[in-house]
Amino acid sequence: MRKKYLILAFVFLFILSFFISLGNGAVKISAREIAKAILAEENNVNRQVIWNVRLPRTIMAGLVGICLSLSGAILQGVMRNPLAGPNIIGVSAGGGLAALILLVLFPELYYLVPGGAFVGSLLATLFIYILAWKDGALPTRLILAGVAVSSLLNAGINALMTFYPDRVAGVISFMVGGLSAITWIQVKMILPYVSIGIILVLLLPTKLNVLMLGDEIATGLGLNVERTRFIFIILSSLLAGAAVSAVGLLGFVGLMVPHIARLFIGSDYRYLFLGSIFLGGTVVMLCDTMARVLFAPMEIPVGIIMSALGAPFFLLLLRRKEKI
């Protein structure tokens, strides 16, 4: 019952963050005015701001937070490594490179960016896993292989920026992770990928619980370990790729949120997935709101806020792991 109440608390925080994000920015809008703008038919400035600017941006922030937090939770479970995350081990960089190749070299195929980012994330994850495999994939090898692959992929991103400087006007926001130019078009583009990923993940928490017990025990319980691991890698790549295609290389969400959720809920993925969904959306929506209001009327990319919070969290987690 305690876990269920905590999930309800996360749902409440998610809804509260949604309305905080809608109401704050260069133009502050009260809760009453938000309700009128959403429900009323009158065409005024507040309605235009809510419907055309803040609502798609807030929805995208929630979706991205959900995708990255679920991707991080899956990677930490599959790799049995608390330091695993989409941006740490190069999954996001793989999706980012694929998305940039489409946007820079084939801009007419922009509608394929979510699918391309998924393929890039998947290939990066599989490459990391293959490099780290030697009678099993030890956590240390996975992290080291991920760092190496991430550096290689970032070199590819930098090469694109160098050879095509006239086509990468918006690449700075993409590299940091930003939500400033989000419209309903981007929301509709990634929504099918996000929906499929979330539904499939919520159908498989028990299998990840068994996989967390170790390969030998999981095999003894009748689980096809390699097939299950491969399915979760695909789902993690799908979610990370969808997020990267929308907002760029937004870091630390997939590392931070599953750990925070685990502190409250525990390691049972039946509840951890739900907690990561609502907490991930909450964190990104609040951070995006901070990015809009801290230096208003000027905005900063939400990735700067996430990095400022995530880097100390990563170091704290690293020191805690060393002590253990």
Structure characterization notes:
- The protein has 324 residues and is mainly alpha-helical.
- The chain has one domain: ABC transporter involved in vitamin B12 uptake, BtuC (Orthogonal Bundle).
- The protein has 14 helices and no strands.
The whole-angstrom Rg is 20 Å
Look at the structure and give the CATH class: Mainly Alpha
From the spread of the alpha carbons, the general shape counts as globular
Number of domains: 1
The CATH architecture would be: Orthogonal Bundle
Distance between the termini: 30 Å
Order of helices and strands: HHHHHHHHHHHHHH
> The biggest beta sheet, please?
none
Q: What proportion of the residues is helical, as a percent range?
A: over 70%
CATH third-level topology: ABC transporter involved in vitamin B12 uptake, BtuC
Question: In percent, how much strand structure appears in the residues?
Answer: under 5%
Secondary-structure-based class equals: mainly alpha
Average pLDDT number: 84
Q: Give the name of the CATH superfamily.
A: ABC transporter involved in vitamin B12 uptake, BtuC
Give the number of DSSP strands: 0
Supply the number of helical segments. Answer: 14
Main location: membrane
Family: Belongs to the binding-protein-dependent transport system permease family. FecCD subfamily.
Subcellular location: Cell membrane
InterPro entries: ABC_BtuC-like, ABC_transptr_permease_BtuC
